[in-house]
C-alpha cells in the first residue's frame, strides 16, 4: 500500500468511529427526551435489545413498543444518560462498541431518584451510508436509590406493574 491509500483507509475508519459515537450520543439524547419516533429510526428492523431485569426484546417494534413506549415511559419521569470511555471496532459494514454509562433517573412508583452505572455492549450494521443499532445489551453494575447508594443497595429492582 502507498501512503495515500493508508491515509484514505485511516480517514474512513476514523469517520466510521465518529459516526458511531454520534449514533450512541443521539440514542442517549433521544431516550432522555422520550422522542420515541426519532429513536425508532436508529434500529435495524431485526435488532435485539437486552436490558437485564427490564427484559429482552427481539425486533425493532418489540424494542420500541414493549420497552421504550411502555416500560420506560411508565417507569421513568426523568433520565440523563452520560456515556463515556468508548471502545469501538469497525469491520467493513459491521461494528461493535462498548461504553460505560453513568445515569441519573427518576423511577416510579414514588418518584425515586436512582443512580445507574453499567456497560453498553452494542453491535452496529451499516445500511447504505448510515449506521444502525443491530443489538444492544446493557450490563448493570448498579441500579440504586440515591439515598441508599451502591455500597448498601447495588441492585434495587423496581416493582413491575
From TrEMBL:
Top-rank lineage group of the source organism: Bacteria
Annotated SUPFAM superfamilies: NTF2-like
Pfam families linked to this entry: SnoaL_4 (PF13577)
InterPro entries registered for this protein in UniProt: NTF2-like_dom_sf, SnoaL-like
Domain SnoaL-like: 13-137
The name this protein goes by in its record: Nuclear transport factor 2 family protein
Amino acid at each position: 500500500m502507498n501512503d495515500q491509500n493508508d491515509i484514505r483507509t485511516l480517514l474512513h475508519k476514523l469517520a466510521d468511529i465518529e459516526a458511531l459515537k454520534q449514533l450512541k450520543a443521539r440514542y442517549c439524547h433521544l431516550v432522555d427526551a422520550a422522542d420515541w419516533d426519532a429513536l425508532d429510526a436508529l434500529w435495524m428492523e431485526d435488532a435485539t435489545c437486552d436490558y437485564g431485569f427490564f427484559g429482552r426484546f427481539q425486533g425493532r417494534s418489540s424494542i420500541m413498543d414493549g420497552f421504550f413506549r411502555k416500560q420506560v415511559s411508565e417507569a421513568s419521569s426523568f433520565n440523563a444518560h452520560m456515556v463515556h470511555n468508548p471502545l469501538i471496532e469497525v469491520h467493513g459494514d459491521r461494528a461493535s462498541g462498548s461504553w460505560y454509562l453513568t445515569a441519573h433517573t427518576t423511577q416510579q412508583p414514588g418518584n425515586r431518584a436512582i443512580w445507574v452505572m453499567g456497560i453498553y455492549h452494542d453491535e452496529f450494521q451499516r445500511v447504505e451510508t448510515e449506521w444502525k443499532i443491530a443489538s444492544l445489551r446493557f450490563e448493570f453494575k448498579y441500579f440504586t436509590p440515591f439515598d441508599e447508594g451502591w455500597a448498601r443497595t447495588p441492585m434495587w429492582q423496581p416493582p413491575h406493574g
